[in-house]
Amino acid sequence: MLELKDVHGGYGKITILNGVSFSVPKASITTVIGPNGAGKSTVFKAIFGLLNIQSGQILLDGKDVTRQKPRQMIAHGVTYVPQGRNVVPQLSVYHNLELGGITSPDQARVRERIEKVMDQFPMLREFRNRKAIELSGGQQKQLEVARALLLDPKLILIDEPSIGLSPNLVQEVFQTLMRLRDNGVTILMVEQNAKAALAMSDYGLVLELGQTRMHDRAETLLGDPRVGQLFLGGHVEGIA
Ligand SMILES: Nc1ncnc2c1ncn2[C@@H]1O[C@H](COP(=O)(O)OP(=O)(O)OP(=O)(O)O)[C@@H](O)[C@H]1O
């Protein structure tokens, strides 16, 4: 459903992506891994219209969406959950959800969508009147994912959902993502927690120095010794 073809781009005149190519099938989870500074988050910004793309193409369901604005990407069914904590801490869970609907192209249906999303996340219904800050880290991440779902996305770009979470909360968030995948949502995720992320993914992508170095089924990457080296922050030798 998503295809990047030899994408080059960066910030202003600085080039960070030097030829990123990969495709993501519908209703799958793809995890992007690679050393710090490889350009993983930058790939998401490129897809979501937040980067200066110098050349190459981004296709969504075969349609050219290169250089479209975030608002247009949302209208195409793409949402972006950036790295870090993105909830408004002093507002209630419900109010945070309402804020998530502000960019929805279909305002009339936002309330209905909030109810539907709370059906999917009973924890959010239970804590709807609590301040977001009073939720655990994993619950806050689930609130962010739920908020992204208000836009009824077909593709979610999620940047390091497990950061700062204890191992059992990481599993909770991953299970949420797997459930979404099973319901037909396509997920592209950046994760430092590479082993655990690949273990629950269908595909994996290794980025290094702004280029695609490997792209394969997740279990193949997990079994590859060169990927082990990369997990430790080493250079990938001998991979064209
Ligand atoms: N807004 C920006 N302006 C200029 N350079 C930037 C900006 N954001 C990121 N960069 C640079 O782009 C490069 C890639 O950054 P990016 O965040 O995509 O890496 P990453 O692979 O996601 O790293 P990490 O695993 O550390 O999050 C880095 O050298 C970074 O300094």
From TrEMBL:
Pfam families: ABC_tran. Keywords: Amino-acid transport, ATP-binding, Nucleotide-binding, Transport. The lineage of its organism: Bacteria, Pseudomonadati, Pseudomonadota, Alphaproteobacteria, Hyphomicrobiales. Belongs to the ABC transporter superfamily. PROSITE patterns: ABC_TRANSPORTER_2. This is Amino acid/amide ABC transporter ATP-binding protein 2 (HAAT family). CDD domains: ABC_TM1139_LivF_branched. SMART domains: AAA.
